Amino acid sequence: MVSREHKRAALYEKLQLLRSITNSHALNQTSIIVDASKYIEELKQKVEKLNQDIANATSSHDQNQLPVVTVETLEKGFLINVYSEKSCPGLLVSVLEAFEELGLNVLEARVSCAESFRLQAVGGENEEEGEGIDAHAVKQAVAVAIKSWSESTEQE
């Protein structure tokens, strides 16, 4: 059998642990428990607010989010990344048409269109045209292609 002193010591340890976890400065048992209860309520409110923020971000993200485009300048050409968390049927064609209009040859590409859309392409300038395109122009052209694609899919 466990003696009363052992039970009392174990209870005291648990109350001190509860006091430290909840940042309570209370000294008696009742006050420690009241502080812990308030702490739990604060945590519940924080969780509810975070869940609301996540729900709001998700709904606005799903409705308005266009794919993200990044363009890096390479020694000869550009590294173009296009990413969307959702599948984007027809977007690849629009992006490739934008490359063609810019006079970029696709030297290497990796594409995934299943549950999300990912395109990583290395594009080099056509030797014949040699206009000297910069990364900003490439990004703008791809962004315009994405916007046109988005508007055309909304109409369907």
Helices and strands in order:
Elements: H1 4-21, H2 29-64, E1 68-74, E2 77-84, H3 91-102, E3 104-112, E4 117-125, H4 135-155
Antiparallel strand pairs: 1-2, 2-4, 3-4
Helix pairs in contact: 1-2, 3-4
Task: Jot down its keywords.
four-stranded antiparallel sheet
Notes on the protein architecture:
The longest helix is centred in the N-terminal third of the chain and has 36 residues. The model has no long low-confidence stretch (mean pLDDT 84). The chain has a 4-stranded antiparallel sheet with strand order 1-2-4-3, covered by helices on one side. It is elongated and about 90 Å long. The protein has 2 domains: 60 residues; 90 residues, Alpha-Beta Plaits. Helix content is 56%, strand content 21%. The protein has 156 residues and is an alpha+beta fold.
In the predicted model, the low-confidence regions spanning at least 5 consecutive residues are: none
CATH topology of the largest domain: Alpha-Beta Plaits
**CATH classification, class level of the largest domain:** Alpha Beta
Structural class: alpha+beta
Q: Considering the protein shown, what is the CATH homologous superfamily of the largest domain?
A: ACT domain
Largest sheet: 4 strands, antiparallel
CATH architecture of the largest domain: 2-Layer Sandwich
Helicity, in percent? Answer: 55-70%
Shape: elongated
Strand/helix succession? HHEEHEEH
Global mean pLDDT: 84
Domain unit count: 2
Strand content: 15-25%
Number of strands: 4
Termini separation comes to: 76 Å
